[in-house]
Structures are given as C-alpha cells and as structure tokens.
Design a protein that fits this description.
Length: about 425
C-alpha cells in the first residue's frame, strides 16, 4: 500500500509503471558517469535465498555464452560514433569466476568498444577463491573484489541453505593477494541470528582484511525456496542499529544505508550510477529515457544474439519526472544527494522539481540540508531501509518473477 501511495504522489500520475515489449535500442545518455555491468549466470549450486538470475553450471554452455556476450558487447558498442567513457565496471552473477578462462577475452572486447580507465570489480563465491584463481583474476585486470560470505557462522549458513565453506580463510587469501578494495557481503535478519552473532561476523570481516562490509536484509522473494523465513521488522531494526553502533565503535564510515567502510577507502558499489549499460541475460541498462531489461533466459539470450539482435526483452520509458525520481531513489541510498549533480543531469534545481517533497522530508526530520546537498538523518536512513525492502518486494520481485517465467513478455505492469 505505502509504495502505491508514494508512487502516485511522487510521479503525480495514477498510471502504473510498466515494462513493455516495445523495445527501443537507442542508447542516449544524459550523464558522463556511465557504468558497465556484465552478468555471468552460472553457479555450481543454486542457493535458495539468492534472487538473482542464474542457472546450474554446464561446461558445454561456457563457450557459446562467451561468444554471445562478446557479440552483444560489439553490437551495443557499435551504436556509438565514438567510444563512450566508462567510469565503473563490475562483473556479477552467478559466479563470474566459473568463466575465469574467458574473462580476459570479455574485458578485451569491452576495452575495444569503450574507453575504460577505471577500476574493475568482480563478485566471488567463496568456493571459487584459491591462491591460483586470485592470481589469475588480478592478472586479467580486476582490482576490486566482493566476496559473498553472507555469514561466517555454520548455523546461519544452514538456515540460508548455503554449504559451509571456511569464509575466514577465503577473506585472508583475498587480502594476501593485494586487492585495493575488498568488500564482504553479509546478510542480516536470518532466523536465530542475534546481535551477538551479527556483530561477531561484522567485526571478523574487517579484522580479516575487508575494506568494506555490505550488509543486506534477508528478503524472501516470492520465487525463492526459503524454508526458514526472515526475521520481522523490529528484529531487523535491532540488528541494523547494532551494525550502526558497531561501525562507530571501530571508526568506520557508513557509506550507504547498508554499507560500512574503513575511512578513506575506495567504495565497491555496482548500483549507484547515473547511467549504466548491462550485458548478459537479465542485465539492465539505464539511459536518458529508458530502463532496458535483457531476456532472463540464457538459451534465448544466446539464440537472440546469434541472430544479430540485441537481446533486450523489455523497456520502461521514463517521463522526465520518473527519470529524476529513479536518480533520487538510488542516490538517497548513499545517504545524500547533491543539487549541483542533479542540475547537471536534468537542467533544473532539485527544489524546482521536488520542492514539496523536500520540504516534507525536512519537516519530518528525514532529511537535513547542508549547503547544496540533502543528507539522510538517522530517522531518514531507517525509513529508506524500510522503503527499499517494500520497493524490492513489489517492483523488483514482480518484474524478475515474470521475466523468469517468460523470456519475452508482452508487458509487466508494476502496480
């Protein structure tokens, strides 16, 4: 209910947000801050808690997938008259290291089509981390790593349906390999996970060498197969407060609603970009006017690209206000948003487009204004924590659920 009410108020429209099969291949950008995301969909085991698009690893599919992925990169790169400057590159999945021997070719294709002189990040499943794999990952050009630990505790991993691996040893290996950014992903809100268990995991991650810890609330997606459900709202609130308090105690900065980092370190963040291009099945692209979503089916993705077609399955066309709202929502995740950056993108001041909303936010003590920036208060940060989970349940869950069932939907109406 709250997301529907907010959508009507913020968009100033009763029309639902909607993905349609009316695909527009234009890739026009209103930002010089363009990111790239590359999706590798293979996993050795399919963890029930994980909502992302993945399939069981099949060695026979690796080469056809690599070929299709490089072809998609070349097709999209060919849409521009000159190379676009790229300010961030992230590989996620799935388990990208399952294509370790192919990653170098994929990066070569990216550099052929885009001007890349930035750090390159990769998500790693603990089972794929060895001294040998880390040496190869570094030699390919990756210098930022995110490790999907979720918890160091056997009981928590059992609850999530994740096979136990010595996560502490894996983080030690990554630190010894000398990556400049080491992110450790943890989940909070797991059944029987008290503050003592979460605090132990949080402290352990930093002690072992993490420069950043990303802590995500356990969200039960409708198509997941979780036997044990997440903890309730109040229990999650206590755990989030525990994380905030502990981060202050050890001198970390809170760099996003669910992310904490050592002072002065480079952030690992694959979602907060003004614009981005996604490659691979289920990958999303954000342009000046559109949000584009590739087909989720790996088989259909390969078939489509082999026919010389860009594998976009659905497009959401933005109004100017909706595009600005998208920017505002994801920038708020980083705890602040800047008027100068907004004006550079949209040509108007924040207060001109969102005067009423900003004043209400300040009146309710969700926001405070400091010079040209709006900063989320402690109350505002918790409100965002609640809102993002609602957004995930109503919008992301529905669009991903429908896209998983039908590789080429006619439309997906999002409330």
């Amino acid at each position: 209910m709250i997301t529907s009410i907010l959508r009507v108020i913020l968009t100033r429209s009763f029309k639902p947000l909607m993905f349609t099969s009316k695909v527009d291949y234009k890739m026009e950008f209103d930002s010089n801050e363009i990111g790239i995301y590359v999706h590798i969909p293979f996993c050795k085991t399919l963890c029930p808690f994980c909502p992302y698009n993945k399939i069981k690893y099949d060695e026979s599919m690796i080469n056809p997938y690599k070929t299709a992925l490089i072809d998609e990169i070349n097709m999209v790169g060919g849409l521009y008259g000159r190379k676009k400057v790229i300010t961030s590159v992230y590989f996620g999945g799935g388990s990208p290291a399952l294509m370790l021997n192919e990653l170098g070719e994929i990066i070569t294709a990216l550099k052929k089509n885009f001007n890349i002189s930035t750090s390159i990040g990769i998500e790693l499943h603990p089972s794929d981390i060895t001294k040998e794999s880390l040496l190869k990952i570094k030699s390919i050009g990756f210098d930022m790593v995110s490790i999907g630990i979720q918890s160091f505790q056997l009981e928590c991993l059992n609850t999530l349906g994740r096979e136990y691996i010595d996560g502490a040893e894996k983080v030690r290996l990554v630190k010894a390999a000398g990556f400049k950014t080491i992110d450790v992903d943890l989940i909070f809100g797991i059944a029987n996970q008290g503050e003592d268990i979460l605090k132990k995991d949080f402290l352990m991650a930093f002690e072992l060498g993490a420069t950043q810890v990303s802590t995500y609330p356990f969200i039960d997606f409708s198509y997941a197969n979780n036997i044990r459900k997440p903890l309730g709202k109040q229990e999650k609130k206590r755990l989030l407060n525990c994380l905030e308090k502990t981060s202050i105690e050890i001198g970390c900065d809170r760099t996003a609603v669910w992310t904490f980092a050592k002072k002065g370190t480079i952030r690992y963040s694959s979602i907060t970009r003004d614009a981005f291009i996604g490659f691979g099945p289920s990958a999303t692209s954000l342009t000046k006017e559109f949000l584009k979503l590739n087909t989720f089916s790996v088989e259909e993705y390969i078939k489509c690209v082999n026919k010389g077609k860009i594998p976009t399955a659905m497009t959401m066309k933005f109004s100017e206000r909706n595009r600005a709202l998208y920017w505002l929502f994801w920038n708020a995740y980083t705890l602040k948003f800047n008027d100068d950056e907004f004006k550079k993108l949209f040509g108007v001041n924040l207060e001109k487009m969102f005067k009423i909303e900003l004043r209400i936010g300040i009146a309710l003590r969700l926001l405070t204004k400091v010079e040209n920036s709006y900063i989320l208060t402690k109350k505002g940060t918790y409100f965002y924590h609640l809102l993002e989970q609602k957004y995930t349940n109503r919008y992301i869950d529905k669009s991903w659920r429908e896209a998983r069932k039908n590789p080429w939907p006619n439309e997906i109406r999002l409330y």
